[in-house]
Amino acid sequence: MENGAIATFGGKIIEVGPAPGLRSRYLAEITDYGDSILCPALINTHSHLELSPLRWRLSPGGPFADWVRSLIKARDLIRPEEWEPAICRAIKEMQQNGIIAVGDVGNLDVVPGFASGKDGIRPFRGVFFQEIICPVPNGAEEEIPLGPSFPRKRITEPMGILGPSFHYALSAHAPYSVAPQVLKAIKAWDQDHGMPFSVHVAESEEEIEFLQGGHGPIKELMQEKGHWPLNYDLPKTSPVKYLETLGLLDRHTVCVHCVHVDRDDISILAKTGAGVCLCPRSNVFLGVGVPPVSEFHASGIPLALGTDSLASNDRLSIFAEMASLSKLAPGLPPEAIFRAGTYGGARALGISEELGSLDKGKAAIFLSVASGPIGNRDVMEFLVHEGDKGLGDWV
């Protein structure tokens, strides 16, 4: 909207429209941002803040399972005094890059432990996903707080710690690393609490190989960790089809990555309404491939964007992810890319009533991006490719 304006009151947007009309209707303080674009703040739908101390410490190469081994080893070597400074820097970096909310996935309790600090960069908005890895549910009654068969013992809900804008949910690591009955229990818990269900899906070819045939590098990793043999039969199908058979795919499910999917998988995602969170720069770093983004878009699958962690990315910037996605999927319209980085992420995290677009009733916090005198047709293209260069202060 050229020469547009946003009227705000009491921390909320009360109207969006042409500036002359709003000026005539409201007696208010006016701020003119000149040749700038006012746009929604960005949403980082998938990250792992607890891995922030690992920035620039890991290199890709070899099988995906080897990367997982390296990651586990490196995380175990993180010193206690490293956690908070690194995570604080990561949160501040995201905010400096125009990110208003995050879907943060963690195995540990380091993020909830200080998420409501008072140093000016927290509390953050979004969802903290307590990630569960449970390939063989032997003794799961002692580990997982899910349903009548799984009394809450190990994990407690840090609702009071996280604060009113940073919610708590459970997530499953991946179809190959969580037993089917536990996958269903996690989904049920999230559903009962009105929270989204997040799971890594089809990130590597090795995941497909393992689920379909029960062999390959992931089986070797399972054996090393004492998770083999499994006490259930592998699905012998794709991760997406497997999740569908378990009844886990719906509009409240966030499938992260979805690099190795076929046409049938895409049809299932479209039919069930499940969303896909793309992490293009992490995928490139790890060399796992490029997801069929144009096919997702053509099928009407809701898309979101995430940075993944600083263990597999050098920047926590959704602007950088948008630019990368544009190069990897040149046929994808810039409008679709920008939507994935804003409303798509808010939808995926269940916070679209508050964030993700400039609409009446939503939070009056958004971005001002200096663009110079450009035409309406170039706005989305500019935001996708040049937005981070013109990013000014938060409005």
Account of the 3D structure:
The radius of gyration is 21 Å and the shape is globular. By secondary structure, it is of the alpha/beta class. It is built from 15 helices and 13 strands. A four-stranded parallel beta sheet has the order 4-5-6-7, sandwiched between helices. It has a single domain (about 40-355), classed as TIM Barrel (Alpha-Beta Barrel), CATH 3.20.20. A hairpin with a 2-residue loop joins strand 1 and strand 2 (about 10-20).
Keywords:
about 400 residues, alpha/beta, TIM Barrel, four-stranded parallel sheet, 13 strands
Give a concise summary.
The protein has 395 residues and is α/β, with parallel strands linked by helices. It is built from 15 helices and 13 strands.
